[in-house]
Amino acid sequence: MIKAQIPEIKALLSTPKNIIIVPHKNPDGDAMGSTLGLYHYLNMYNHNVVVITPNDYPDFLKWLPGDDTVLKFETQQKESKALIDKADLLFTLDFNAFHRAGDMEETLEVSKAIKLMIDHHQQPDDYAKYTYSDVSMSSTCEMVFNFIEMLGDTDKIDATIATCLYVGIMTDTGSFRFPATTSRTHFVIGNLIEKGANNSEIHNNIFDTNSFSRLQLLGRALQNLKVIPELRTAYITLSQVELDEFNFKKGDTEGFVNYALSLKDIIFAAIFIESQQDGIIKISLRSKGAFSVNEFSRAHFNGGGHTNAAGGRSETDMQTTIDKFISILPTYKQELSQ
Ligand code: 5GP
Ligand code: MN
């Protein structure tokens, strides 16, 4: 994709369609911002549009305009399947492989709808008729802006759409500081503010709505922080017992790994979070510079993502997982000591 296919997509969208928009499992700010931004845009035409998430997402995203219309596959499976079954078009946003949609994987696989992918993760699968994939992009939200622009509709972006897209660009760029933030990103953000996104209010809604127990959990995470200075690596662990102690809610650990990365001279950071429910240790990896956590995660922890931010999982217990992590690190000594 995609420029050459825009006339085709425009033709498709010129008559009313049943449209489903899906983000990845455990949706984050970019996943929800991009799906709801696109939802509000497509709703301006006479389409029947529904956002279906694989599962629930954090409370700090629940103020987003359109949140009340979102279906959750996990708890609304029958309704979701019926809608996907009669969908003409199916957009997959902020992911590029069906397994990233968790329990929705099979439903997406068997769907006969025309698929459109908008995503910025590495190594996209080849399931979509229209693939807009660009790993250099800051966020899927920036790409949805580009998509609307390619359709010649920037003047249709109102305060509602602008608010949704602002959220994902802000969260995926760590508030405009990660390397994927370009002058174009700032141009888009400026444009969204002009169209009515209230930047100060959005930052407040996302970042300044902490619960007391989340901050206490952060305190514990920071106490658990371990540093391996010779490999410029730092990592955090949180066990299920600790999560329970601080009344853990979905999203509470979002951003914790960045504290490990904020240490002077550290270029590789990890957080290991036990999930009794899933029977796994969920891993978030972050790096600075050329060290690819996407490749590290793909090679050792069954995951992936971007060069500087990736996720993964381990099916063994916490201690075994940490032992494995520590034993692998020296094989990256050269990359990590640069
Ligand atoms: P997080 O650590 O915040 O869960 O994820 C960091 C980045 O990696 C996000 O862009 C996320 O979508 C991606 N990611 C997280 N887990 C996985 C995974 O298991 N596989 C792949 N391919 N990407 C992941
Ligand atoms: Mn994203």
From TrEMBL:
Protein name, per record: Bifunctional oligoribonuclease/PAP phosphatase NrnA
Native source organism of the sequence: Winogradskyella echinorum
Membrane-traversing stretches: none
Ranges for domain DDH: 18-169
Domain DHHA1 residues, every copy: 245-326
Gene3D superfamilies: 3.10.310.30, inorganic pyrophosphatase (n-terminal core)
Upper taxonomic lineage: Bacteria, Pseudomonadati, Bacteroidota, Flavobacteriia, Flavobacteriales
One Pfam family of this chain: DHH
Superkingdom of origin: Bacteria
